[in-house]
Amino acid sequence: MKQDFFNQRRAGILLHPTSLPGTPGNGDLGRDAYRFVDFLADSGISLWQMLPLGAPHEDFSPYQCQSVHAANPLLINLERLVEKGWLTPATDENLEDDAASERELDQRLDHSAFREIFSPPSEGKRAIRYRQARLKAARAGFVKNASADDRAAFAEFVKTQAYWLEDYGLFRALQAEHLKVIKAACLKALKEIDFHEALEARLIELKNARGWWGWAPELRDRHPQALDEARRRLAEVIEQHRFEQFVFFSQWHSLKKYAHEKGVYLFGDIPIFVAEDSVDVWTNRENFLLDAQGRPTVVAGVPPDYFSATGQRWGNPHYNWDYMQANGFRWWRERFKSAHVLFDVARIDHFRGFEASWAIPAHCETAIEGEWMKVPGEALFESLQDIDFPLVAEDLGIITDEVRALRDKFNLPGMKILQFAFDSGPDNPYLPHNYVEHCVVYTGTHDNNTSLGWFQEIPEHVRHSVCEYLQAAPHEMPWPLIEAAFKSKARWAIVPMQDVLALDGKHRMNVPGVERGNWRWRFEWSQLPPGLNDKLRHFCHSYGRV
């Protein structure tokens, strides 16, 4: 399947499941997900591309998740748990915050940047608490009402996924326990420290201690006796996390099966780096370049360039590639196998980082003082050849001959972005006439503005170049750009849902470098114009993508 999968011309739509409509707080794996599959199939679209599915932190970024194996439990559809008999139908109950201390913290803490780290944006908090409470009730219903088959399936899931599930459940339980301690310390500081600068320093200190490196040393360093005691103390919470992962994967496999029946394949995303505050770093410290307290000695990012004079300091810990290579890249093999369970094909984010990565000393506040660190990418991908998993290389950014050679050695399609095509002359590699077949073209990605928003903001002379190249009028955008992607020689063409709906820049998914307001966009079915299915199907048929 690995090679054959890329031989057929296909079209896809990029939409993260959280952007689906219809359910509290975020989209999920319920009826709207199935309706979206139907929409794709009716439109001749055979690829549903999405972002990573892991459990995010409070900023909702799917690229900074708490585990490379576990999925986001907020994607679980609650209606299907009612159908299973594990939940009673939802009511209009008004869920209050669990802890009075947390309400007090929200009311008193006026340090906005700090507050954002400790709780999600207010518009999403109630929905998250609602979902969490319903999932807790669903587990109680499962214990009481589950069939013998469901109990056996749960037991089998816990057994087969134990290699990651047990540490994940313990990590999340300890994380929640520690957060209560940190919040209590914040309240104490607010009550006892009057001097503003001293209060600010104490709050920053507590913020920096929030991650697993701020836990008690015996838990931070995984002393067996301390972990055993924590497993006993937090058994109920750990079991809740096991249950939620079981439910997610059950619902996901049902959706995946339905998509396949409709001729739709699921296209995922694998970030190259992992979050520092993740179970992956806590349980596999030898795989990362860390100090004795578990903090990174160097962090990831990209060097200064045209877009940023100081580069980008992402903050993710760097891998200990020597250790990983010595054990046959076991961690990476497990990671790719987990991704293949979820997806039919996946994009590898920041592919150039598998040839060399920008390593920034952890004490530096910007990326200026970093240097390129060589990576054994060829040996890694050789070790993955027995995993029959089609991959696409996100080969954007600073791409050298060495990066191209690595991509081509393993016959990985690269990416072309139409929004990047019009800021130079006819040799621009993102212009369709310069494509090779073995690539994937996008109008834009989750990090770009919508194509309409992009077109509205570019300089007048660039708008003129776009219209001249596409033989289009300004009022027709973004459809001429979409058609250019479909008619290009690129084997696959992917269009964000925002572009299919012709939405402007207010509807973009992410603005890199901006901390608030990202990853929350959702569409409504009412936004689909009449005849959209027919228009997409016509493009797919006309340009051989069915």
Short characterization:
44% of the residues lie in helices and 10% in strands. With 546 residues, the protein is an alpha/beta fold.
Describe this entry's structure for a reader:
The chain is α/β, with parallel strands linked by helices and 546 residues long. It has a domain at 73-248. Helix content is 44%, strand content 10%. It has 21 helices and twelve strands. It has helices at residues 31-42, 78-83, 100-108, 112-118, 122-145, 148-160, 162-192, 196-208, 217-220, 224-233, 235-261, 279-283, 321-326, 330-342, 377-383, 401-409, 451-457, 460-470, 479-487, 497-500, 532-542, and strands at 10-14, 47-49, 265-270, 298-302, 312-317, 345-348, 356-361, 371-374, 391-393, 414-417, 439-442, 492-496. An eight-stranded parallel beta sheet has the order 9-6-3-2-1-12-11-10. Strand 1 (10-14), helix 1 (31-42) and strand 2 (47-49) form a beta-alpha-beta unit. Helix 6 (148-160) crosses helix 7 and helix 7 (162-192) packs antiparallel against helix 8 (196-208). The chain is globular, with a radius of gyration of 24 Å. The protein starts with 9 loop residues before the first strand and ends with a helix. The model is unreliable at 92-99 (pLDDT under 50).
Distance between the termini: 18 Å
User: Helical residue percent?
Assistant: 40-55%
Summed over residues and divided by their number, the pLDDT gives a mean of 93
Query: Can you tell me the residue ranges where pLDDT is under 50 for at least 5 consecutive residues?
Result: 92-99
Q: Which strand order spans the largest sheet, edge to edge or round the barrel?
A: 9-6-3-2-1-12-11-10
Largest sheet: 8 strands, parallel
Number of helices: 21
Assembly classification? single chain
Structural class: alpha/beta
